[in-house]
Write a structure and sequence with these properties.
Structural class of chain A: alpha/beta
Strand content of chain A: 25-35%
Oligomer: heterodimer
Number of helices of chain A: 7
Helix content of chain B: 25-40%
Strand order of the largest sheet of chain A: 11-10-9-12-8-1-6-7-13
Radius of gyration of chain A: 21 Å
Radius of gyration of chain B: 20 Å
Structural class of chain B: alpha/beta
Distance between the termini of chain B: 51 Å
Strand order of the largest sheet of chain B: 5-9-4-1-2-3-10
Shape of chain B: globular
Chain lengths: ~250, ~300
C-alpha cells in the first residue's frame, strides 16, 4: 500500500509574523520557513507504517514555490521514499491544493493519504476534508491513533469532550492531531541520503487544474491590542481587584 | 437570500456553539434556517425552533445521521444546500470536520473561523495564530463558513417560534462506520462556553500536581479547566482541554493562567478573554504582557492561597 503525504512550507512556528504597513499581508521575506508541524507528524506516521511493513512506499507532495523542495527533502530525510513538487508561483488556496492532490491521488492510487489537520499560517483546516470530498473517499480528521486492519483502517479522533473511533474503508484520508506521534529528529546521514532520493516536478497545468484563488484578501491588519495590565503584590490584592475593580467574581 | 446554520447537538440537546453561529448567520442579512440532522433528534430540533431569530428548522432524522459521520452529514447538507446563499457551521471539531467537505462538493472556497461579518460576501478571520486579521471577500455563489464562537454573542435560546419541517434523511455512504466514543467524564462547564476558566501550564510538573493545584481553584470558582499545549504535550492534561491556536479558542469573563509562560500559540486561544490573570514566577514571562492582573509568585503557594481567599 502506497501512502501519500502532502506537506506545506510555512513560516516557522517560532517566528512572530508582522503585518505589512500597507495592509496587503504579513511580511514573510527573510523569515525562517519550515515544514508545517502537523505535516511533520503526518510524515512520521507514514514512515512508521512503512517500518511496520504495512506501507510499501511513502510519497511526499508539496504544492507551491520552488523552495518547497527543501520541505520535501526534509520529508525524505524523515523517511519518505520519493517526492513530487507541484510547482507554481500562484497563491494557492485550500480548494486549489485539494484539486491538485486529487489529480495526484488519481495517478498514484495510494491506499492512505495522511495530512496535517491545519497549516499554522492560514489556519484554514480544510485541505484534507476537501480532498476526501473530491476523491469521494472516507475521512478521519484530528487523528490520535491509526491502526490498519486488512482493507480497513481504524482511527481514533480527538473530538470536543473526548475521543471517538471510526473504521474506514481504504483508500481513505486521515488528518493528524498533536498526539498521534512525536516526529523523530532527522539525522545528518539521513539528510545526505534524502538528497539522492527522487524528486519530480509537475505544474498545475500538467495536472489540468485551475488554481485561481476564490477568496480575495482585501486587507490584513494587526489585531486589537490589549491595554497594559498591572502587577499585584499578593493574593489578597488580586482577590480585591477581581471583586471590586474587574467585578468578575 | 437565506442562511442555513448546521446545528451542533447530541440528539437530545443543542450545543451552545449553535447559538453563536445563528448570530453570525443573522448578520449575513437574510432569513436564518437551522438544520438539525441526527437520529431521534426531536428534542434538539424543538430546542432549535425556540432560538430567537430562527425562521425555520429543518429536521432530518435517520440512522445514517446518528453519530455525525462527515460523509453522511455533508451529504445531508448538500441535499438541501441549493436553497441557501450561506451555509454556516460552528468552528467546532464537528463543524470543521464537515464544512470543507460540503464546500469542495459545491466547488466553492470555505471561509474558516470568521470573527466578523463585514457584508454578506466579506468576512474577517484571524490568520497566523491571531497575529493578523484578514478581511476576505468571496466571489462564490454560496458561502460556506465556519464561525468562531468567541467572535459572536450567543443568540437567545428562547423567544423564537420557528416551524419545524421534516426532510428526508440521506442513506449511509457505506465507506466509514462509527466504532465508539470515549467521553471525558466532566461535570464542569464546557470550555468554550465557560464564564471562568482556570488554565495550567508546564510549570505544574506532573498530571498529579495539575489536578491537585488546578482542580480546587476551578471547583471554588465553578470554572472550566484549560491547559497549555506544553501541559498537554507533557501528558498533564487531556488534549480536549488544550487552549490555543490548534486547540480551543476561548473568551471567558475571567481567565486565570497558572504557570503558563504565554507562547503566541497559547495567547491566540485566550487573548480575547475579558479579564486575564497570570500567576507565574518568571517576571519575564510573555503572559504578563496580556494579563490585566499579574501575580509574580510560585503557583504552588499562590494558587492554594487564592483558593483559601475566595
Amino acid at each position: 500500500m502506497k501512502v501519500l503525504v502532502p506537506v506545506k512550507r510555512v513560516v516557522d512556528y517560532n517566528v512572530k509574523v508582522r503585518v505589512k504597513s500597507d495592509g496587503t499581508g504579513v511580511d514573510i521575506a527573510n523569515v525562517k520557513m519550515s515544514m508545517n508541524p502537523f505535516d511533520e507528524i503526518a510524515v512520521e506516521e507514514a514512515v512508521r507504517l512503512k517500518e511496520k511493513g504495512v506501507a510499501t512506499e511513502v510519497i511526499a507532495v508539496s504544492c507551491g514555490v520552488q523552495q518547497c523542495q527543501e520541505t520535501l527533502r526534509t520529508a525524505m530525510a524523515i523517511g519518505a521514499d520519493r517526492a513530487i513538487l507541484v510547482e507554481t508561483n500562484e497563491e494557492l488556496q485550500p480548494l486549489a491544493v485539494a484539486k491538485l492532490l486529487k489529480a495526484l491521488v488519481d495517478k498514484e492510487q495510494p491506499g492512505l493519504i495522511i495530512l496535517g489537520k491545519q497549516a499554522i499560517d492560514d489556519d484554514a483546516n480544510q485541505t484534507g476534508q476537501m480532498l476526501a470530498a473530491l476523491a469521494d473517499l472516507p475521512q478521519a480528521t484530528f487523528a490520535s491513533k491509526v491502526e490498519i486492519a486488512g482493507d480497513k483502517v481504524s482511527v481514533t479522533r480527538e473530538v470536543d469532550g473526548g475521543l471517538e473511533t471510526l473504521s474506514l474503508n481504504t483508500p481513505a484520508v486521515i488528518t493528524t492531531d498533536l498526539r498521534l506521534n512525536e516526529p523523530r529528529y532527522v539525522t545528518l546521514p539521513n539528510i545526505m541520503k534524502a538528497k539522492k532520493k527522487q524528486l519530480d516536478t509537475v505544474t498545475p497545468a500538467d495536472l489540468g487544474v485551475d488554481v485561481a484563488p476564490r477568496l480575495k484578501t482585501l486587507k490584513v491588519t494587526e489585531p486589537a491590542k490589549r491595554g497594559a495590565g498591572i502587577k499585584v503584590p499578593d493574593v489578597a490584592t488580586l482577590v480585591a481587584k477581581l471583586k471590586n475593580e474587574a467585578k468578575v467574581i | 437570500m437565506t442562511a442555513l446554520v448546521i446545528a451542533e447537538h447530541d440528539n437530545a440537546h443543542l450545543k451552545s456553539a449553535t447559538l453563536n453561529t445563528v448570530t453570525a448567520a443573522a448578520a449575513c442579512g437574510g432569513e436564518v434556517h437551522v438544520l438539525v440532522a441526527g437520529e431521534g433528534a426531536q428534542a434538539a430540533a424543538a430546542a432549535a425552533a425556540q432560538i430567537a431569530g430562527v425562521a425555520k428548522v429543518i429536521h432530518a432524522d435517520g440512522a445514517a445521521l446518528k453519530d455525525g459521520l462527515a460523509e453522511n452529514l455533508a451529504a445531508q447538507v448538500l441535499a438541501i444546500a441549493g436553497n441557501y446563499s450561506h451555509l454556516l457551521f460552528p468552528a467546532t471539531a464537528s463543524g470543521k470536520n464537515v464544512a470543507p467537505r460540503v464546500a469542495a462538493k459545491l466547488d466553492v472556497a470555505q471561509i474558516s473561523d470568521i470573527t466578523k461579518v463585514v457584508s454578506p460576501d466579506t468576512f474577517e478571520r484571524p490568520i497566523y495564530a491571531g497575529n493578523a486579521i484578514a478581511t476576505v471577500q468571496s466571489g462564490d455563489a454560496v458561502k460556506v463558513i465556519t464561525v468562531r464562537g468567541t467572535g459572536f454573542d450567543a443568540a437567545a435560546a428562547t423567544g423564537g417560534s420557528a416551524q419545524v419541517e421534516s426532510a428526508a434523511a440521506v442513506q449511509d455512504a457505506g465507506k466509514s462506520s462509527f466504532v465508539g466514543r470515549e467521553v471525558t467524564k466532566n461535570d464542569r462547564p464546557e470550555l468554550t462556553a465557560a464564564k471562568i476558566i482556570v488554565s495550567g501550564g508546564r510549570a505544574l510538573g506532573s498530571a498529579e500536581k495539575f489536578n491537585e493545584v488546578i482542580t480546587p481553584l476551578a471547583d471554588k470558582l465553578g470554572a472550566a479547566i484549560g491547559a497549555s499545549r506544553a501541559a498537554v504535550d507533557a501528558g498533564y492534561a487531556p488534549n480536549d482541554l488544550q487552549v490555543g491556536q490548534t486547540g480551543k479558542i476561548v473568551a471567558p469573563q475571567l481567565y486565570i493562567a497558572c504557570g503558563i509562560s504565554g507562547a503566541i500559540q497559547h495567547l491566540a486561544g485566550m487573548k480575547d478573554s475579558k479579564v486575564i490573570v497570570a500567576i507565574n514566577k518568571d517576571p519575564e514571562a510573555p503572559i504578563f504582557s496580556v494579563a490585566d492582573y499579574g501575580l509574580e509568585a510560585d503557583l504552588f503557594v499562590a494558587v492554594p492561597e487564592l483558593v483559601k481567599a475566595l
